[in-house]
Structure formats: C-alpha cells, structure tokens
Amino acid sequence: MKDVYILAIESSCDETACSIVKNGREVLSNIISSQIEIHQKFGGVVPEVASRKHVENITGVVELAMKEANIEREDIDAVAVTYGPGLVGALLVGLQFAKGFAFSLGVPLIGVNHIEGHIAANYIQYKELEPPFVSLVVSGGHTFVVHVKDYDDFEVMGETRDDAAGEAFDKVARAMGLGYPGGPKIDQIAKEGNPLAIKFPKANFHEDTLDFSFSGLKSAVLNYLNSEKQRGNEINVPDVSASFQHAVVSVLVENAMKTIKSRNLDKIAVAGGVASNSSLRKALLQKGEEENVRILFPDAILCTDNAAMIGSAAYFQFIKGYRSGNDLNAKPGLSLGGR
Ligand code: KG4
Ligand code: ZN
After folding, report:
1. How far does residue 142's CA lie from ligand 2's centre (Å)?
2. Label partner for 43 (CA 20 to 30 A): which of 2, 10, 154, 257?
C-alpha cells in the first residue's frame, strides 16, 4: 500500500501546532507554538488573544513543519484539522487555514475531534497498539474513562459532572499563587509535601458510577486555604499540593481500574495534559502491576496539545474513507465520539 502523509493542524486552545504524520504512527515533524507566556499574565487563556495569536503564527508554524519533515506539497495526501471541542475563535483560525490549504493542494480535508486526538497520541507512542483498550482522558477541559472499541468507536463509561481534572489543578494552583498552568507547578511542588497531611474529600460522583466530580474537592481546598489564613496560620504549600494531588490521582486510578475490570480488557492508555503528572504515572503503573493491567502513557510532548495526535487520528479516518466537506464548521462543545 502507498504511504499516506497527512498534514495536521491544531489550534483549539492556546497552542498553534502543525505536524506531518506518515501512516498514522510516524511523526516527521511536530511544531508547537505555545502562547502560555502571553496568557500567564492574565492567569488563564484569554480567547480573543488566543485567536489573534493563532492568526499571527499559523503560516509560520505550517511552513516550519513542512521544512522539518522535508517533504513537498505534492506529497501530502490529506489535510487534517481539529474542529472541536475548544474555543470557537481559535478553532476557526485552524479550520479556515486547513480548508484553504487542502483546496489549493486538491486533497481531502479531515475534521478531527480533539479528544479523539489525545487518545490517538498513544498510537504514535506504541506502534503496535490497536483497539480495544480503555483510555483515561485527563486534560484541561475533559475527564473521561472510555472503552475504545475501534479507531472510530468510543463508549464513554464515566465523565466529570463539573470541573475537569486539569481545571481543578489550575484553579487550586491559582488560589495558592502558583501561576498558570497550575498542573505542572503542583506536580513539582507536591514532591516536597506529604500526600496524607490533609484529608480532602474524594473526587468521585457516586460510588456506583464511574463519573467524577472535582468541584467539591476544589472548594474543600479553597475553604481550607481561607480558614487557615483567617486563623493566621502559614500555608504549607507542598503539603496542600501533595494532599490535593493525592485526592485527584486516587479517584482517577480507582475509576480507570473499575472500568477495565468491567470490560475484561488488559490495557489502559492515558491521554491529555494531566497524563504528564508524575504521581498519576507512578500510582497507575503500580496498580497496573498489581492487577496485571498494562499501563500506557505517551511522552509529555504528545500529552500536551499537539498536531501529531490529530494527524494520527485523521489517518485512521482517512483509510476508512471518511472525508469532511468544505462546510465543516467549528464545534466548540463537541463530545467524545460525536460528529
Ligand atoms: O490536554 P491539554 O494540554 O489541553 C487541553 O486540551 O485542555 O491539558 C492541559 C491541562 C492543564 O490544566 C494543565 O494544568 C494540565 O493539563 N497539566 C498537568 C500537568 N501537565 C499539564 N496537570 C497535572 N500534572 C502535570 N504534570
Ligand atoms: Zn487538549
């Protein structure tokens, strides 16, 4: 079979990214232009600023991805682009660029669901990985446990009823003045703290579901910080970070293990920005060893928002014959498995 080269674009939040992916699993280039520094001074992503920066960056990012991959325009078989979920203005910049580029090359356009992209990062990391498996998706906007039945068939087994895991990290970090994005900061500082120092509530929704709820935990941490301040006590930031992280990680591990058992599968592939968390990695690997379940994590560069994962997801759609029309629109609220 002829090799398939996909040029993929990702612009759903605060990263402008372009990647060239060969046959869904081989990354020829993976350019990510992060806007983190710009948004840091606001304490979070400002949508209008993000859109404007995408407009400024996208041409250069695509040119660089082509150059690094060392391929010609004629080699590209399809253009893939994230069309949701995400910030509507940010998504539209990527979409318009991708449509124009695909049209000018005379190749098909493939719209990709960002969450399905995060899961596909595992196909790049583990060249032999094929469905079925369970995926734990933990990002700034989403938290799911999913039965991945096929490359294009997902059954959501549990999801968050309120905040996402990464969002909880960001909000708690902000309350302690650690800055944005909070996940990596808490991960780092928690290494010096005691995870059992403060008992925070569990972050599951109900014992009998696989759903998550992080807003109660977040409020408990914020209340703790306020009441300690009122009493004039100094906050032990490493202890609060470690105890909060422990509460998040334990429910993620628990629900992922419950899911895999309920489906009689043997692999859990973790995906999304929070998949970089060192405590989550350690706890899941340990549990996996005890229970004979293989735990998969993409490298940090594939966990964060990137276009290589979009190119991988697009490949499996491409070979199944999926194509998007030029009327493809941004879908800010697109859910996992949704079209
Ligand atoms: O997947 P991602 O890059 O963007 C979204 O699609 O949301 O995830 C970003 C989220 C942020 O909330 C960030 O704080 C969190 O991932 N994150 C982490 C770590 N690295 C990134 N959370 C915990 N520990 C980390 N090491
Ligand atoms: Zn993401």
Report:
1. 8
2. 10
